[in-house]
Amino acid sequence: MRDLAILFIHLTVTIARLLGPGGLRSVAAESLLLKHQLLVLDRSRERALNLRPMDRVIAGLCAGFLRPARLVRSTIVLKPSTILAFHRALVKRKYRSLFTPKRRGKPGPKGPSAELITAIVEMKRRNPRFGCRRIAEQISFIFGIEIDKDVVRRVLAKHYRPEPGAGGPSWLSFLGHSKDSLWSVDLFRCESLILKTHWVMVVMDQYSRRIIGFAVQAGILDGPAVCRLFNHVISDQPSLPRYLSSDHDPLYEFQRWKANLRILEVREIKTVPYVPLSHPFVERLIGTIRREFLDLVPFWGAHDLQRKLQEFQDFYNRDRVHRGLGGQPPESSSLKARNVARLDDYRWKSSCRELYQLPIAA
After folding, report:
1. Which of 184, 197, 228, 333 could form a disulfide with 245 if both were Cys (CB 3.0 to 4.6 A apart)?
2. The 197-205 sheet, strands edge to edge
3. Does residue 165 carry a pLDDT above 70?
4. Cα torsion at 94, 98, 102, 108 (round to 10°)?
């Protein structure tokens, strides 16, 4: 009889709460909270309660609909600190949403513009052999924008993905080549498509890093041939240097070669024997010619090689920037005549039959 009376009293109180304002939500939240606590108690057997994040979320949501008087009676398993911690998290979330700027972004420098990123990625895509320093110098020279190589490296790491099979010239470039004060001098040889040896003489201005010219000889070299190659290189030069740097190759010991220099009033300066570092500029130039041109370009004969080396000479002197010159090309005339390009208005210019492509002002 006593239990029936207690149940009748609880029924009457519950009906009264349901009829009051917000009563339905309060009763449903209290019932859900009690049932969830029973599930938590059933889950924990011989150890302390281990509440999951979802348990805390359910308890916090249900507690928001209960009155304070009923909340104290409902916290059988959960401690008040759990409810208060959840409340503090909601308060922090509220003020974070109120005082956080609507514009999502990290503070600090905003980085390069979208146009600059596009130019960097496109230059790398069109010239896969260009490094970060070369691209930064080319961008600074063409667009007049000071940019560091580390910025280029970060841009490429985020936005550039090399194409499968990249790393060499395209088939169009390959077929296009198959169809048809102090100066330094040096010789190197290369092989044609039919495996015939060709000797190339290169003469450069050591101060400006400018290539004076190339001369090609097929077959064996001797004293008269070396003189003929040198005279061919300097034939269209308005003036001659006072000094000419050369190594200790036996080809420079012929009497005809020395007599030719005396007639031209050019004094020869020899490097340290067996030390290539004493002849650094022209040796590095030969490595650049091999790495950036001859290893990628086929040729048939001496005339074909001479024509293609002339194309590379024009690109090297007018468009290719150099670290030793502060990111400038060797020829000063190209600096005076160049127009600074804009990132929103430029076009691509191909050199060496599309082997290299650089942006220029539109």
Report:
1. 184
2. 211-218, 197-205, 182-191, 243-246, 267-270
3. no
4. -100
Tokens representing 255 are: 């009497």
CATH topology of domain 171-326: Nucleotidyltransferase; domain 5 (3.30.420)
Question: From CA 227, how far away is CA 234, in angstroms rounded?
Answer: 11
- The pLDDT of 43-50, averaged and rounded, is 55
What is the per-residue pLDDT across 68-83, written as a single tens digit (0 to 9) for each?
656 555 555 556 666 6
Burial of 145 (0-12, 13-18, 19+ CB in 10 A): middle
Is residue 236 over pLDDT 70? yes
- Which sign, positive or negative, has the C-alpha torsion 212, 214, 215, 217? positive
Question: If we measure between CA atoms, which residue out of 79, 68, 88, 90 comes closest to residue 37?
Answer: 79
Q: What would the two tokens of residue 179 be?
A: 């169809």
Q: Where are the domains of the chain?
A: 2-99, 112-167+331-362, 171-326
pLDDT at 179 over 50: no
The model carries a pTM of: 0.62
Cα–chain-centroid distance for residue 132?
6
